[in-house]
Amino acid sequence: MYTWDEDTSAWYGDAKYSYSSSGAAKRKEAAERAEASGPRTYKQKEQPNEKIIDPRKHITSASANPLIVAIDVTGSMASWPFEIFDRLPLLYNTLSQYREDLEVCFVAIGDAGCDKWPLQVTTFAGGYDLEQLLGSLYGEGGGGDAPESYGLFAHWVNTHVSTSNVDEKPFLVVFGDAPMHPTVPHQQIAHYLGDGGNRDVDAIQAWQQVCKNWNTWFLRRPTGKPGDKVDQQWSQAITEQKIFHITDEQRAVDYAMGLIARAWGHFGDFQDNMRARQSEDKVQAVSTPIEMKCPSCGAPIPVDVAGMFKCSYCNTTLKL
After folding, report:
1. Tens digit of pLDDT for each residue in 168-192?
2. Most buried residue, 112, 148, 244, 246, by most Cβ within 10 Å?
3. CB neighbours (10 Å) of residue 231?
4. DSSP assignment string, 19-76
5. Separation between Cα atoms, residue 150 and residue 148, nearest integer Å
6. What is the four-CA torsion angle of 200, 203, 204, 205, rounded to 10 degrees?
7. DSSP symbol at 120
8. Tell me, what DSSP letter sits at residue 78?
9. C-beta separation of 109 from 149 below 8 A
């Protein structure tokens, strides 16, 4: 399990890596708090910490770089909160050295048709505070049918999340493998989010609204086939270009970090970070599909470009 300190000597790769001086104070504070708390453990639980994960709350980030990480926790994905927890210090320490004001919100998505906790959400936070927040989520492992309540989550983002200081679309990353219920019943909205009204919400339209304010990506587990019914529905919701097929589940967090590092102009450093943990084959397997997409709009990028590159689709300038 990764730790909050800056010592990378125990990493398994052949290369060496050191974090930059940017964000060092926050990493030091997190490491000191982690040491005082004892060894990192992910406690098995029978339910989430309901005071922390209640989706009826409204959350705000004053950061210019908020990040939402949402995880489908139905069925075989019930263990994914632990997988993210294991890599939490790596995720935060790596990305916060690129942008020190990074704040993260974690979300667990289930099925409101049958699960007890179909939407679990944390507030935005950074550093060691994320340890308790992520540890409060519960991988219920339910789900009554193929579609899940991704639409309820999208509606929550549209109505319960505010960001006041962003200059560019912040990242919202969903790890999942299923389609969504096409409609969010108003009864579910009232029950789980505490919102009034008697109108159902179209899930596709809710996601289209999310995409207006968030750089949204669906990182799909290696299930199904590209272009299948799951892809077709998510293409309507966030566009085909923003669906990213993961080929190695163990590298799921690396795919997300790589996309963000690419957008923020630090992809080379991310690759060096990964080389200190994985083989060169693994680094290239993760890097190649990321390098083929614009991290802002998902449009294809020529493989032979270098230096400063302006995407012809969204006009984003990238440092390649």
Report:
1. 999 999 999 999 999 999 999 999 9
2. 148
3. 18
4. --STTHHHHHHHHHHHHHH-S------SS--HHHH-TTS-EEE--SSEEEEEEE-SGG
5. 6
6. 50
7. E
8. G
9. yes
Nearest to 161 by CA among 228, 66, 92, 248: 66
Cα dihedral sign, 29-32-36-42 = positive
Q: Residue 85 pLDDT > 80, yes or no?
A: yes
Q: What domains are defined for the chain?
A: 24-246 (3.40.50.410)
> What letter does residue 156 receive in the DSSP assignment?
H
Residue 289 backbone phi and psi in degrees, to 5: -65, -30
Q: 209-235 pLDDT, tens per residue?
A: 999 999 999 999 988 889 999 999 999
User: Letter for the amino acid at 22?
Assistant: S
- End-to-end CA gap in the chain: 31
Closest CA relative to residue 212, chosen from 318, 108, 299, 297: 297
Task: Specify whether the CB–CB gap between 74 and 143 falls below 8 A.
Answer: yes
CB 219 within 8 A of CB 236: no
Maximum Cα interatomic distance, the chain, rounded to a whole number of Å: 59
Q: What is the mean pLDDT of the chain?
A: 93
